[in-house]
Design goal:
Strand content: 5-15%
Number of helices: 7
Number of strands: 3
Helix content: 40-55%
Distance between the termini: 32 Å
Shape: globular
Number of domains: 1
Structural class: alpha+beta
Order of helices and strands: HHHHEEEHHH
Strand order of the largest sheet: 1-2-3
């Protein structure tokens, strides 16, 4: 699992600077090079941009259709969580809220749909661990897909970053944005390490 600091560093990468019509088209084109995974990343970005106070405007995106068409092996589905909506001081009765849950390699996303529809298929299989990292994970995932096109490379980059998190780096210092060269250095170091073993197929 990546730390909040690492997620924030990824979230401040190149993709976060690509706004507006022209840059948005460029980002979509580059993400499309990753196939279905890139389209999922693009639809997640749209959902995050459309986020309202009540949740993510999923009906304005094609995220669900993209997941159904080719989910790249991701575990996902719909679940109901109970929330206290409105002003917490008034302590309103908790109400069921439909959420779309997606298990990404860097953590679980829980997207509260802005349009209440009740139960939907498919039902999410697993435990929903709701936290406040969904927006960061979406931004970090978009950045990773932008930098590394295949699921294997993305997962390997996440493993390398997670190892860096566990190596005792001072998390209290501000995390600097990670550029492509820095990712390449991390990956190269991991490949050359004794734990990585010898490359196969030569």
């Amino acid at each position: 699992m990546l730390s909040r600091e690492t997620l924030e560093a990824l979230a401040e990468g190149e993709a976060s600077q690509m706004f507006g019509t022209q840059q948005g088209r460029e980002l979509h084109t580059r993400l499309s090079e990753a196939g279905a995974l890139g389209e999922i990343a693009w639809q997640l970005r749209l959902a995050a941009q459309e986020k309202w106070e009540r949740g993510y405007c999923l009906r304005r995106t094609e995220l669900e259709a993209t997941l159904k068409h080719d989910d790249c092996g991701l575990n996902w589905g719909w679940a109901e969580l109970w929330y206290r909506l409105g002003d917490p001081i008034r302590r309103r009765t908790p109400e069921p809220t439909t959420v779309l849950v997606i298990d990404l390699p860097l953590g679980q996303l829980v997207l509260k749909d802005d349009y209440p529809t009740g139960g939907r298929a498919p039902e999410y299989q697993g435990q929903v661990d709701y936290d406040d990292l969904t927006d960061l994970r979406i931004a970090a995932f978009v950045e990773l897909v932008l930098l590394y096109r295949t699921p294997e490379e993305i997962c390997y980059a996440i493993v390398c970053l997670a190892q860096s998190d566990e190596s005792g780096v001072d998390a209290s210092e501000p995390a600097a944005p990670l550029g492509p060269d820095e990712f390449d250095q991390v990956l190269d170091a991991a490949v050359r390490s004794p734990q990585a073993g010898e490359p196969s197929g030569n």
